[in-house]
């Protein structure tokens, strides 16, 4: 058994920022499945939002965020996000993050979707990578202990109080109990429950499922963002920065790529967001692309549209979007300097997550905190604006770390009974010994298929019902899986099985939450209820695990300033 004051699960931006925030006064350690610099945060391209220009205002960033969320965010949480943004940006800049610059030497900012001022700070199209490196240096400076390539399989909570975690050390094959006064969950999103996703393989929502099983509530899980521009079929992200730099979205209505008139005529966003065009919010742009495809205006009648950057020119593309170009060349053999990029929407961001207050505290479990994409502080509501989630990781990562540290200083270490550890080992052994006839990859593929068809960009009662039935069937069949590798060391089969269990748990919550929410709001769009219904549905969904099964409750949205109004772009 290992002991620390605070355990951070996850080494992405939120986890690292939490650890740095807590490290001054507490004995803190990070347990993470990948090395921190290999976390999905490093794939973030486009940028991070903050008001750092005198012509911009905090109130405008706040309003854009609330409007973008389709009024489902808690406005106090969104206010903290935007108010604390400038300090946090300058802090990481002083720590060494290399931002792109204006000719005057100031941090450059580009426009992103749903913004009323260009306020996305960026480092070319490698912003996440650059911030990740900076925070990793800070981890080393603060000498924070990192257990990497360890997978947490259980959060131990007794009588509503955190006791620690159980983790699997891949290199030794050992399961290890780690005792702690508090645990900060920062395990990222769950995009891998969909077939086409921008998310890394590690984004399987582990922390959300583990926290739920330990007694925490998950909030607004039905709100799942589809990013408009994933590379065709692969889902790999083509940054919103492309549209920020002036990229066009084109559908095929006798499109002639050599004719500037035809190109302008085929910029279909003018039908859906006449003012913002390609820079409408993501939910709207994704639905517009899908509508073009469904109505037969995909390129050559197929299920993609074009993102055209050619007019931006080689110099700017090489300077500001070099990684996008590289991804296009490597994965679809297209050079965006010369040819348009085939794109389709891709599952991208989990707006919902572990319910916390603005200090990262889970109200259900004493000593438990959460931050970053796995958490739902509720600053994104039903649709997150681009550039606001990198911001969320550092603003709320910092707050959760500082508050976990305060908690650890005033509370004693509680018992971690060995039976808790033994129960987990027994569960793992049963899983390994299971001699069923179902494969992990088979069930995962069927799950991704069911979620993509049933709980995708467009939803309705009938298809969601079928998805729920399918998920429940897959959960049953999961009891019959067979893990081929019976060994202990680096058993990726076992990890895959544990991830699948988590995805199945979360998929049911997403699907049932979506089925129950009889309205359209942000990324949750229902063909059978195409309008927002503030009278009945201006409320958060909360899902809890009980001995009798899942229980859904609803919670008031915190409106402090902006009254809901129709969302137009
Ligand atoms: C391709 C892409 C591009 C993006 N671009 C932008 C952008 O330009 N701007 C923006 O604002 N947002 C962007 N986002 C969103 C943003 O990057 C993420 O929401 C954010 O980085 C998530 O950070 P995180 O620290 O919460 O999680 P992650 O970075 O995903 O880190 C999660 C950590 O948890 C660990 N972990 C997971 N499960 C376990 C377990 N069971 N045990 C132990 N450790 C575990 C992982 O190893 C990892 O270290 C992008 C997202 C993607 C996918």
List the SSEs and their pairings.
Blueprint: E1 2-9, H1 13-22, E2 28-32, E3 48-49, H2 58-68, H3 75-83, H4 85-95, E4 109-110, E5 120-121, H5 127-141, E6 145-148, E7 150-158, E8 161-169, E9 174-185, H6 206-214, E10 218-219, E11 224-231, H7 241-244, E12 248-250, H8 260-265, H9 269-272, H10 282-294, E13 305-308, H11 314-320, H12 322-332, E14 341-350, E15 353-355, E16 368-370, E17 375-376, H13 388-410, H14 418-433, H15 440-454, H16 461-478, H17 492-516, H18 534-537, E18 539-546, E19 549-556
Parallel strand pairs: 1-2, 1-9, 2-6, 9-16, 15-17
Antiparallel strand pairs: 3-5, 4-5, 7-8, 8-9, 10-15, 10-18, 11-14, 12-13, 13-14, 18-19
Helix pairs in contact: 1-5, 1-13, 2-3, 6-17, 15-16, 15-17, 16-17
The chain binds flavin-adenine dinucleotide.
Task: Give a brief rundown of this model.
The chain is of the alpha/beta class and 569 residues long. It has three domains: 2-64 and 81-180 and 357-369 and 385-418, 3-Layer(bba) Sandwich (FAD/NAD(P)-binding domain); 228-345, Succinate dehydrogenase/fumarate reductase flavoprotein, catalytic domain (Flavocytochrome C3, Chain A, domain 1); 421-537, Methane Monooxygenase Hydroxylase, Chain G, domain 1, CATH 1.20.58.
